[in-house]
Amino acid sequence: MTIAQPSRPVAARRRSTRKQRRLMLIGAAGAVLSLAAGLVLFAMRDTIVFFYGPTEITQKGIAPGTRMRLGGLVEKGSVERGPGQRVAFSITDTTTTIRVNYEGLLPDLFREGQGVVTEGVFEGAGRFRADSVLAKHDETYMPREVADTLKKQGHWQPGAAGPSPVPATR
């Protein structure tokens, strides 16, 4: 009696089974990673926002002591400078206003009517204690080269673009 040698297709089946197991393992690992990423993003859904406006803070009922970023416009006539580097001002989104207390140097672009983003702790009752203040550049800023190009193409509308273009530094 002779023992039959294993045929080639059986060996090929074993190799494909190994490949299938490897692909199933990779697929399962990918599914677990996707699920983990989804859970992390779901848990961070409120903290992913770059900053909250005053109205959003009052509508969400954020608890005092919460660390966050507050953004909006510096209300005209609200800046009060105290002793040392203490400054108090109000941030508004034209609907709601929150009073901000800050101690430190303010950015050069900080002024009344200008957009700012502050980072600090919400103290409740419309008060915010800021650790840092970032002044936002005017949204209508346009380098002179871009404005000149638009003028040459006939697309320049001085009234629609806001203030005149600021020269770009080189």
Automatic annotation (TrEMBL):
<protein>
    <recommendedName>
        <fullName>Cytochrome c-type biogenesis protein CcmE</fullName>
    </recommendedName>
</protein>
<feature type="binding site" description="axial binding residue">
    <location>
        <position position="141"/>
    </location>
    <ligand>
        <name>heme</name>
    </ligand>
</feature>
<dbReference type="InterPro" id="IPR036127">
    <property type="entry name" value="CcmE-like_sf"/>
</dbReference>
<keyword id="KW-0201">Cytochrome c-type biogenesis</keyword>
<keyword id="KW-0812">Transmembrane</keyword>
<dbReference type="InterPro" id="IPR012340">
    <property type="entry name" value="NA-bd_OB-fold"/>
</dbReference>
<keyword id="KW-0408">Iron</keyword>
<keyword id="KW-0479">Metal-binding</keyword>
<comment type="similarity">
    <text>Belongs to the CcmE/CycJ family.</text>
</comment>
<dbReference type="Pfam" id="PF03100">
    <property type="entry name" value="CcmE"/>
</dbReference>
<feature type="binding site" description="covalent">
    <location>
        <position position="137"/>
    </location>
    <ligand>
        <name>heme</name>
    </ligand>
</feature>
<dbReference type="GO" id="GO:0005886">
    <property type="term" value="C:plasma membrane"/>
</dbReference>
<dbReference type="GO" id="GO:0046872">
    <property type="term" value="F:metal ion binding"/>
</dbReference>
<feature type="region of interest" description="Disordered">
    <location>
        <begin position="150"/>
        <end position="170"/>
    </location>
</feature>
<dbReference type="InterPro" id="IPR004329">
    <property type="entry name" value="CcmE"/>
</dbReference>
<keyword id="KW-0349">Heme</keyword>
<keyword id="KW-1003">Cell membrane</keyword>
<comment type="function">
    <text>Heme chaperone required for the biogenesis of c-type cytochromes. Transiently binds heme delivered by CcmC and transfers the heme to apo-cytochromes in a process facilitated by CcmF and CcmH.</text>
</comment>
<keyword id="KW-1133">Transmembrane helix</keyword>
<feature type="topological domain" description="Cytoplasmic">
    <location>
        <begin position="1"/>
        <end position="22"/>
    </location>
</feature>
<dbReference type="GO" id="GO:0017003">
    <property type="term" value="P:protein-heme linkage"/>
</dbReference>
<keyword id="KW-0735">Signal-anchor</keyword>
<dbReference type="GO" id="GO:0020037">
    <property type="term" value="F:heme binding"/>
</dbReference>
<dbReference type="GO" id="GO:0017004">
    <property type="term" value="P:cytochrome complex assembly"/>
</dbReference>
<feature type="transmembrane region" description="Helical">
    <location>
        <begin position="23"/>
        <end position="44"/>
    </location>
</feature>
<feature type="topological domain" description="Extracellular">
    <location>
        <begin position="44"/>
        <end position="170"/>
    </location>
</feature>
<keyword id="KW-0472">Membrane</keyword>
